[in-house]
Amino acid sequence: MLQHATFPDHEAMSRHAADWLVDRMRQVPEALLCLAAGSTPTRTYHLLAERHAAEPGLFSRLRILKLDEWGGLAMDDPATCERYLRETLVDALNLGDRYVGFDSNPADPEAECGRVADWLARNGPIDTCVLGLGVNGHVGFNEPGPALHPHAHVARLSEASLGHAMLGQAQGRPTYGLTLGMADLLHARNVLLLVSGTAKREPLRQLLEGPIRTEFPASLLALHRDVRLFSDAAAR
C-alpha cells in the first residue's frame, strides 16, 4: 500500500524523510537500511550525516546495504554508487564492516551477485529500503521487461539508465548493472520511496494511477504493505 505525502519543495521532503528514518532507527537500533544512490536522496543522507555528528550513538548499530551498482567501472570511479554512498553518508557514519555492497568491477559478476544474496539471506531481511523512481519506472536496476528477477542479479541496462546524470562524471562506461531483485525489496519491512523534480511527473502519475505490470517495475511496490511515498510539489 502506497501512503503518499507531498511536500512544498525538495528540502521539506528531505527533512521529513530524514526525520522518518531517524524515528525508524530509534525503534530498531540495529536496522538494516538498503540505500539507493542518486540526486533525489542526497539531501536526506546529508541530514542523516549531520544527525550522526550530533548524536553518534543513534547510529552505533545501524547496518547499510547498497541497493545496486554500475558494473564495469572501477570502484573509485566518480560515477559509482560506491563512491556516492561513501562520500554522502557511509564514511561519515564510520560503519566499517556494517556496510556491505556490490563490487562494481568483479571478476565474476554472477558470483558477486551470489555473494550479496548469501549475505542478505544470513543478515536480512531489510528493515527499510530507500528508493528512487526511474523515468521508465525502474527501481534499482530492475528494468522494465516481460519478467523480473526476484533476487540479486546482473542486469542489462536500459537506455534510460545509461542516460542517468551520475554517468556524466564517469571515467568509463558501465556494461551491466548489479542489483537486488524485486522480491528482496518487497520482503523489506518498509519502503521509503522519494520522488522529486519535474522529470518525475509522468512516472509518478503512472505509479499512482497505472496498473501493476513488470513493464513498470515500481508499480509492484503497490503490493507491499508499508510504502511511504514522499514527493515534492515539482513532481506533481
Task: Tell me about the largest β-sheet.
Answer: 7 strands, parallel
Give the SSE string.
EHEHEEHEHEEHEHEHE
Q: What is the β-strand count?
A: 10
Q: What's the rounded overall pLDDT mean?
A: 96
Shape: globular
Q: Which second-level CATH architecture applies?
A: 3-Layer(aba) Sandwich
Tell me the count of domains. Answer: 1
CATH fold annotation: Rossmann fold
CATH class designation = Alpha Beta
- Our Rg estimate from Cα atoms comes to 16 Å
Structural class: alpha/beta
Q: Which residues form runs of ≥5 with pLDDT under 50?
A: none
Q: Determine the oligomeric state from the structure.
A: single chain
How is the largest sheet built, in terms of strand order?
1-10-9-6-2-3-5
Total of helices: 7
Distance between the termini: 19 Å
Helix content: 25-40%
What is the percentage of strand-forming residues?
Answer: 15-25%
Walk me through the structure.
With 236 residues, the protein is an alpha/beta fold. The protein has a single domain, classed as Rossmann fold (3-Layer(aba) Sandwich), CATH 3.40.50.1360. Helix content is 34%, strand content 19%. The chain has seven helices and ten strands. The protein has helices spanning 10-27, 39-54, 81-93, 109-123, 159-162, 182-186, 201-209, and strands at 2-7, 32-35, 63-66, 68-71, 99-100, 128-132, 153-155, 176-179, 190-195, 227-232. The strands form two sheets. It has a seven-stranded parallel β-sheet with strand order 1-10-9-6-2-3-5, with helices on one face. The chain has a three-stranded antiparallel β-sheet with strand order 4-8-7, covered by helices on one side. Helix 2 links the parallel strand 2 (32-35) and strand 3. The protein is globular, with a radius of gyration of 16 Å. The model has no long low-confidence stretch (mean pLDDT 96).
